């Protein structure tokens, strides 16, 4: 029997999940438990952005309970983008995905989000809240308009026909995101990464996802100031940033998961 045909379930664990967390003691444990039910998960890296609630205590318990969970804490609150930068640098998986620490995004959608990468068709996949809809909580109309405006403006400069650049679910080949130089702050990651992926001309896909949005009373953190910052970042990273300054080493445009056999891909995607 060949080595490829005798791969165990452990060999299929190719996914690193980066979870930025700030004051998410009420939800983080449930999110982690859901993530660990996925057969593709190699590691869950949680970056505590100097939480002031019980998040550190919950994370300490989760780290002891689950070997696949790793945590790191920022000594001062630095924003989501800094937390992601810290997490990406620690990843080892062939595929890396972002998972918010609240319950707005459902980990059960992850297998479908990463499927285009596993099948060798994509280098990056965005989970869109605006394609053929699954479950989606009805919330703020003005947020919807702002998202559509940012997505339209971004598309105009990247020449990508995205439907949801501000989505929380973004999956990457590990080589791409670990080599990307991220310089924005706050919630700027979504705009910056889209601009730099467009410069790389890699294969970007979108898949529909569920979205269980929160109100501000329930803990939602993004606000008008972040939206105004995003407008400037669309211009900054598309017009005043080149390919070579976007990556430490420009990644290849070839998907290494093309080496999986159809049978292996079927097993990984379960």
Strand content: 5-15%
Q: Quick one: how many beta strands? A: 7
Order of helices and strands: EHEHEHEHEHEHHEHH
Q: Give the averaged pLDDT, no decimals.
A: 86
Report the span from N to C terminus.
23 Å
Low-confidence stretches: 1-11, 256-260
Structural class: alpha/beta
Q: Helix proportion of residues, in percent?
A: 25-40%
Report on the architecture of this protein:
The chain is built from nine helices and seven strands, in the order E-H-E-H-E-H-E-H-E-H-E-H-H-E-H-H. It has a single domain (14-252), classed as Spore Coat Polysaccharide Biosynthesis Protein SpsA, Chain A, CATH 3.90.550. It has helices at 28-35, 55-65, 80-90, 110-118, 141-158, 174-179, 189-200, 224-239, 262-268, and strands at 15-21, 41-48, 69-73, 95-98, 124-128, 170-173, 204-208. Mean pLDDT is 86; it is low at 1-11 and 256-260. The longest helix is centred in the middle third of the chain and has 18 residues, at 141-158. 36% of the residues lie in helices and 14% in strands. By secondary structure, it is of the alpha/beta class.
């Amino acid at each position: 029997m060949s080595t490829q045909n005798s791969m165990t379930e452990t060999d299929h664990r190719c996914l690193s999940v980066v979870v930025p967390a700030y004051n998410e003691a009420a939800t983080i444990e449930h999110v982690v438990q859901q993530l660990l039910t996925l057969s593709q998960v190699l590691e869950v890296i949680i970056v505590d952005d100097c939480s002031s609630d019980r998040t550190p205590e919950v994370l300490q318990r989760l780290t002891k309970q689950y070997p696949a969970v790793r945590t790191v804490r920022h000594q001062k609150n630095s924003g989501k983008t800094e937390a992601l930068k810290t997490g990406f640098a620690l990843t080892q998986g062939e595929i890396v995905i972002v998972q918010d620490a609240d319950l707005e995004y459902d980990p059960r959608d992850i297998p479908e989000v990463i499927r285009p990468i596993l099948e060798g068709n994509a280098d990056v996949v965005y989970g869109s809240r605006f394609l053929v809809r699954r479950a989606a909580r009805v919330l703020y109309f003005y947020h919807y308009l702002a998202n559509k405006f940012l997505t339209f403006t971004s598309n105009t400069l990247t020449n990508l026909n995205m439907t949801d650049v501000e989505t929380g679910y973004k999956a990457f080949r590990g080589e791409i995101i670990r080599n990307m130089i991220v310089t924005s702050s706050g919630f700027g990651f979504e705009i910056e990464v889209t601009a730099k992926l467009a410069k790389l001309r890699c294969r970007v896909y979108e898949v529909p996802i569920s979205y269980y949005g929160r109100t501000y009373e329930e803990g939602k953190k993004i606000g008008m100031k972040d939206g105004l910052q995003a407008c400037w970042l669309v211009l900054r990273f598309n017009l005043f940033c080149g390919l070579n300054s976007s990556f430490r080493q420009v990644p290849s445009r070839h998907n290494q998961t093309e080496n999986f056999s159809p049978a292996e891909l079927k097993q990984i995607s379960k």
